[in-house]
Every structure is written in C-alpha cells, then in structure tokens.
Amino acid sequence: MANIKKEISKRRTFAIISHPDAGKTTLTEKLLLFGGAINVAGAVKSNKIKKTATSDWMEIERQRGISVATSVMGFEYNNTKINILDTPGHQDFAEDTFRTLTAVDSVVVVIDVAKGVEPQTEKLVKVCRMRNTPIIVFVNKLDREGKDGFELLDEIEQKLGLHVTPLSWPVGMGSTFKGVYNKYFETLNLFTPNKQVVEESVEFTDINNPELEEYLGDNAELLREEVELIEGVYPAFDKQQYLDGELSPVFFGSALNNFGVKELLDAFIDIAPTPLGRETEQRFVKPEEEAFSGFVFKIHANMDPNHRDRIAFVRVVSGTFKRNTPYLHTRHNRKLKFASPTAFMAQKKSIIDEVYPGDIVGLHDTGNFKIGDTLTEGEMLKYKGIPSFSPELFKYVENADPMKSKQLAKGLDQLIDEGVAQLFTGKHTGRKIIGTVGALQFEVIQYRLLHEYGASCRYEHITLYKTAWFVSDNKEELEDFRKRKANNIALDKEGREVFMADTPFALQMAQDKYKNIRFYFTSEFKE
Ligand code: G4P
To answer: How far apart are CA 467 and CA 500, in angstroms?
Structure first.
C-alpha cells in the first residue's frame, strides 16, 4: 500500500491539446528533451495529417505508424514519472482525441499568440470542461508579433469559458520580446533569440527592486504596472480551484526557442493532479485500491496485414498491473493473461512487469477488446465516460465483392471495435450504415478493409442528420414511435435502438410529438 501511494504521488498523466500548428509537437519535443527521453530536436514526428494528404494513403499509413510510436510518451524528470498522451491534430479524428482525454488527469492547452483561440481548441476545451479536467494554458510563439496579453486573456475567458490567472507575464513580444516574468517562481527569464539552451533565471521576489532596470531598462516600469494590473484584475492562483477545473493558470513562452518551457514543466509538476480515480457503473474506484483495474481507451491495429494483431491501450486506474497475471475482461466475463505487456518510455516500447495507476500499458490483442472495455482482478466493474457521440456523416456500406462477405463483416466488426467509426443496422431493412465524425474515416475504412482484410466495400448516399438513442417508460408511445418510424430505426453495435433522423426538422418533430420519449445524443446516458 505504502509503495503504491508513493508510485501514485510521483506520476502525472496529461495531454497537450491545441488547434493544428499552435505548437503542440514542438512543445512535446521540448518536454521530452528535459526528461532526457530524447536528445535531438526533431525526434518527435508530427502526427499531423496535412490537409492536402486526404487521398494519399501512404501518408495515412505513415501517420498511423508515427502515431503508434507517439501515442504515449513517458519520461522521468525530477523524480516524477510523466506520461504525455498524444492526441491527433486533424479534426476528422476528434473522437480519438475525446477518448484519449478520458485517460488523462489534466491537460495543457497551447495557444498561438498571433492566432488566439481557434475552433479546434474551443471544441477540445469544451470536452475538458464537461469533466472538470484541470487546464493549464500555454501561450506560444512570443518570439513573434501577436495579440496583446490582456486582449488574449479576455479572448480565452470568453471563447473557452475559462477563469484564468496568469502565472507568468511577457515583457514585449516579437522583435521587442525581452523575456518572461514568472510570478509563480518569482523569477525573470531573459530571452535570447535562436538560443536553444535554457537560460538561468534571475530571482526577483520583489519586482520593485531597482535591479529590474538593469535587466529590462525602460520595460521594467511597464512590467511593474502590468503585474499590478494583473493582480488587481485576476484572482490569485489557488491550487484547489485549478484542481477542481475552476481556475486555469496561464504561462507565456516560445516552444521553438525552448523558452518558458522549463518553467511550465516545473510548475506543472508542482500543481498538476496525481492519478485520479474513475467512476464505474457500479462504484467509484480510487487509485490506491490494491486490486488492479483499468480501461481500454484506444486500440491500434498492426500495420502489417500478415499480423493482424492489435495493441489495446489500457489506462491503469487502481492497483498494480502485473505481467502474466490473469485479469477479468468484464464484458466477456473471461480471464485473460498478458505475457508481454508494453510500457511506453518516450519512443521506446519495452516489456514490463508492473504498471501503476496513471500509467498506460499496451496489451497485445487478437480481437478481444473494444474501446471502453474494463479489466479487473475479479470484480464486475464497467468504467464509464467513454461514450460514442452521435456521428455527423453517414453512408450505407455495401459489399462490393460477393466472394468476400465474411471478410467484410469481420473487418467492419474489428474496425468498429477500434473506434474508427460507428456501425448501425437498419432494423427494418437490415442495411448497414456507417457513421463518422470526419470524411476521412470513410476512405480510411475502405482502404483498410481492402489492405488488411481483403474485402471491398462500396458506399451509397444516405440523407441523415443525426442519430439519437431513445428510451421511454411509456410502452404505448414507444410502440407507436417504433411503428411510425420503422424505416428510421436502426440498431447500434450493442443492439440498442437508435432513431435515425433525416433532418433537424424530423428530429424536432419527433421530440415534440413524443413527449414521453427521451432522446440522447451520446451512447452513455443516465436514466
Ligand atoms: P502542432 O503540433 O500544434 O500542429 O504544431 P507544431 O509544433 O508542428 O508547430 C507548428 C509550426 O509552428 C512549426 O513550424 C513550428 O516550428 C512553429 N512553432 C512552434 N513553436 C514556435 C514558437 O515558439 N515560435 C515560432 N516562431 N514558431 C513556432 P512549421 O514551419 O510549420 O514547421 P517546421 O518546418 O518548422 O517543422
């Protein structure tokens, strides 16, 4: 017990989120450099799928390879084990990102000082706020001209709905960028362009100290005024409020110049939450519980079609995961043993014997897992919080090669388990409908079915607006709805009924007419 508490207290598991190009990859790389996990800049490949590459399959396969390597990056720094979970930048993969966010305990949001808050940032922060995930904001690219600091804080508060408090403050920006005053550590960091080494910071417990002029000249007085203004306008930092997801500290810097990154990391280690427990359908599980439990939040297929095994990524929530120990796969009610569980240290994968809460373990899987599955030492638990959302795009999927219908069924089944898309089957027609959040997935599915399963599929147009899971205690109304909407009712992969609304109007009509039916737009709802 004492041991597990110690392991928990030294761990931090988080994700960096941003709109593409704000600097997520660059920041990740600098953090890894501090941990000594890599030793050359440029070692972390961007997992961006460039917009132009939407029909370039080799590119997608290459990216998929990269994203296996960078899915989880673990490293040690100052006696702390840090796990960074990578999130795809491309918006078509937003659902992957949402799921990854269920496996972290906090996030760092990167914002480009010139572009401010961008749409993808808004979406992702919204998901974090729904779960009260603690958020740190890093304003990046201070070596470039950008928005005024106060204007940016306003924008962050308004667009992201966050309460913020700056813990560092820039002195100038772009060509006049002098450095950053760090309120949290009470230090001044002076900026030297194009210098990749970390500057020693100068301690300034009192910024009224006239020595500040020696470093900043005329800017010293301006900094004092701005810091006074900050202290008047923004609340003092309160760690508990941050941990409750109610107050977000903001840091300024330049990832490319490795400036302000060490301060971010040091403050992060100080304040970020240690691995937290999670809700299951049965009860809340605390990390320090002795019995191991965890959930699958991501599944990655092997890219080699001759080895169709997959890696299931499991977030350890409680206890210690041990190699070669039978664990209960609660959905199948069956025990499974894992001979070669993988831990992720930077870009190296290695087989490990024990894994602790907050860590991610990769398990070889021959098709037993799907996203959201729970593993325990024997207790029947089911972790919550990995819902499917109503997809936004839909197509009928048809078999294009009658000789390969088995392969198609198997391939579709496995791709859906991986969370690539959702599959619905028309209750009346039996036709299969694929639903996704991005257009790219349709092409990914077609390509992977062919290359990994030897199956061909063809898509057909369908006019659909949204799917809604529905329930009611009023049997008559439910029967009437089922009868009248028979052509618009399908079953999801678990066999649950969904209403397939053709248009926003049709959905509204149904909601108005059937007052005793409750419609839900995510698969996980409380009744
Ligand atoms: P992303 O993962 O969020 O998509 O962003 P990424 O780190 O790839 O950064 C996007 C671009 O912004 C990169 O330039 C990167 O070098 C640049 N960048 C990141 N941090 C800073 C910074 O602090 N200052 C400045 N001036 N630029 C920064 P690129 O030209 O798109 O790519 P590359 O060829 O440099 O890799």
So the answer is: 5
